[in-house]
Amino acid sequence: MEIVKLLDVCDVYQPQTIATKSFVPDEKYVVYGANGAIGKYNDYNHEESEVLMACRELRISLYDQIEKTVNEALAQSEAMRQSILKKAFEGRL
User: Fold this and answer.
1) What is the pLDDT of residues 77-89, one digit of tens each?
2) Which sign, positive or negative, has the C-alpha torsion 44, 48, 49, 50?
């Protein structure tokens, strides 16, 4: 499986925020927030159909920390592997 960064395969942007005071209960378009539908609006605020993705900042920073920890562990593991191989070839195991 190939792993690619999101920014390498799509354009990311923040659409204009719709103020909650602009919501109208009987309108056509549902407005979504972090926890699901939060209201309805009378206009579609995108030029084309789009895939919308969101992630809370806490989860982003948690992901970044996990990635950093994994990368550090991989580097440490590789260094240990090299050290063991060196000792083995020197006959010190």
Assistant:
1) 999 999 999 999 9
2) negative
